[in-house]
Description:
Layout: E1 2-10, E2 25-27, E3 31-33, E4 36-46, H1 47-52, H2 56-62, H3 73-85, H4 95-106, E5 115-117, H5 119-125, H6 133-149, E6 156-160, H7 167-177, E7 186-190, H8 195-208, E8 211-215, E9 223-226, H9 232-241, E10 245-247, H10 249-262, E11 265-267
Parallel strand pairs: 1-4, 1-5, 6-7, 6-9, 7-8, 9-10
Antiparallel strand pairs: 2-4, 2-11, 3-4
Amino acid sequence: MHTIFYVEITEEALPAAFASKLPIYRVARQIPYEEGGLQIYCGHVPREVVQAGMPREALQEKLPREALQEKGPSQNAVFWKRLFRRRVKSNRKQLLPELLSRAEEMLSLKDRDAILFSPELSYLTGTPNRVPEACYRACLFARYHEKQRKADIPRTVSITIPEDTPSLLGESICRMLRPYLSKVNYVVFTGERTKAALWAERYFYEEYGILSSFEKKPAKNSLWLDFEKERATAHKRYASENGIYHLNEAEVLKFLDTITKNGYNTEVN
């Protein structure tokens, strides 16, 4: 069983009689996948806590423009004065780091990859996510079985691997797809012939006899494993227009976000 800790922003304000720690919750539903499972814990960080720990310059750059008053410098000064008034209590700046440290200890998290931030929290704090393989496998398992119920299983897999990617990603991709390769007829790689892509191409052919090719675009009506982050929006639009099931980091985080919001969560004592 693979354990992850998912942290997201909540709009709920801290209560007046707030204790010194943010709670940790356990999602009751375990997410299965082939050869394993995913146990999710989560934490909800009030927006005021996130903003309290950010430099003023970062807030000015990252908050939506509509949050600022447009009537003149005096109104803007009032806005910032009110915004930073809540930062008087310096202990609030430490709530998020303390939550992460406590989660690592309580849940015996061995590496940083086991802690994931929601996309907004990742953006505001400048902390990039490194989504572990287990999360991709759980999301793929859920979506694959949904397709199976609809008798719409893709027989072609498209894979996008960025340049300068180590061959270890190729091995990881093969582990993700291994439970489904008996039903795959063809694999399309998009982009350059990276070490990871060449490793995976050789594995697919030697172990399963699956032929592959390198193309400019993913195949229509395929399952698309996309590990390129820079063109995520354009890729999402292309997938939607061509009947492609698109699985990338954003979709995995969306999957985890839905589970933490819709599941039955109990506080960990």
